[in-house]
Write a structure and sequence with these properties.
single chain; 57 residues; mainly alpha; 2 helices; 91% helix
Length: 57
């Protein structure tokens, strides 16, 4: 996994956690759901990168 892809995936997860926390704090269910979605997106992208790496070696 390249460093830029890894940083992007971690960035998605962090952005998602921030959105989720903000949504909880202000009682905004939509923002909270978007945050969870961003976290899942980061997890899925990270898993895809790991699969690609496994086939490279």
């Amino acid at each position: 996994m390249s460093a830029s892809n890894k940083a992007s995936n971690i960035g998605d997860k962090v952005k998602g956690k921030v959105k989720e926390t903000a949504g909880k704090a202000v009682g905004n269910e939509r923002l909270k759901a978007e945050g969870k979605g961003d976290q899942v997106k980061g997890d899925v992208k990270q898993a895809g990168e790991k699969v690609k790496d496994a086939f490279k070696h």
